[in-house]
Amino acid sequence: MFRGQNLLFIFHFAFTLLNSKEVHAQTDSISCKRKVIAGSLIATGWGGSMSALYNVWYKKEDQSAFHSFNDGKLWMQMDKVGHTYSAYQIGSLTNDLLEWAGCSNQSAAWISGGIGLGYQTTLEVFDGYSTNWGFSWNDMSANLLGSALFTAQEILWDEQRIIPKFSYHPTSFASVRPEILGSTFGQRLLKDYNGQTYWISFHPFPSREHTKIPKWICLSIGYSVHEKLKGDMETFTDQDGRIYHAQREWLMSFDIDFSKIPAKRPLIKKALKQLNYLKIPFPTLMLRNGIVHGLPLYF
Question: What angle do CA 131, 134, 140 make, to 5 degrees?
């Protein structure tokens, strides 16, 4: 799931850095240089992060012949939503980098969508040679959905009206199975699905011109899980005999589309857009086990 976020954060940093005043002028020579810089960053980020992941993660695992693995029923599909989110965000960030380099909007959209899908596919190939996992067609479908969601919006509307986002809050469930859900904050951020929420943020009126509601105000629909401690089990009993019953959570809240916040300076506008990978805390309605809960602030 989050292994694909390595390139995402590299691009967040690189894109913000490259939009400094020193390289903000647009000339043919600078555009050519920018294409070289963008291509180098993508190749280095892709190859470097894959090499690091292989040595840190996959090299320690038992290897086998390439094989597939049906994991569609695990973790209540939270990992699949994570794949969609990662592919979308990698495509979005790559698109910003390619447009900065001078590529046309449509060319950048197609290329960045392909890069998002290709990067995630590389991870699936690694999984295919890992004894404990395998190449997942379910993951690939989620990857394709994320890349297609980004590219289709750029081609059809030349903007992103439907934005996948992410939020996290610590839970007590990770301490029950720290070897699986993480023992440190960083590990739990990546592994504890109970604390993760994936959102789809959108403006309530797609045209936006025919309403007085600010363009940057969004509604947001979220999905998460509760008391999910083992991927293939709906119930889990800990050492003290306490039983945990896995449940799905559906949420509705407000959000901010940072790309639509009016800003006079292009650099500020581009920097604000990079915040769109996170869902901002707001009052939230949560549906869990048929009961609606009102939360004053949800992270």
Answer: 165
Span 244-258, average pLDDT: 97
- Radius of gyration of the CA atoms of the chain, in A: 20
CA 6 – CA 97 distance, rounded (Å): 16
- pTM score, two decimals? 0.88
Residue 56: is its pLDDT beyond 90? no
Cα separation, 45 vs 255, in Å, equals: 30
More confident: 84 or 27: 84
225 φ/ψ angles, rounded to the nearest 5 degrees: -135, 160
Strands 247-256 and 282-288: antiparallel
pLDDT at position 8, please?
54
DSSP 63: B
Mean pLDDT to the nearest integer, 78-84: 96
Helix (H, G, I), strand (E, B) or coil at 249: strand
Confidence band, pLDDT 50/70/90 cuts, at residue 6: very low
DSSP 3-state of 233:
coil
Identify which has the larger pLDDT, 288 or 20.
Answer: 288
| DSSP secondary structure letters along 119-178 | HHHHHHHHHHTBTTS-B-HHHHHHHHHHHHHHHHHHHHHSS-SEEEEEEE---SGGGTSH
Instruction: Dig out the tokens for 235 from the structure.
Output: 């119930």
* Residues shown for the chain: 299
**In contact, 195 and 38? CB cutoff 8 Å:** no
Torsion sign (Cα): 205, 154, 17, 100: negative
Contact in structure between 117 and 144 (CB atoms under 8 Å): yes
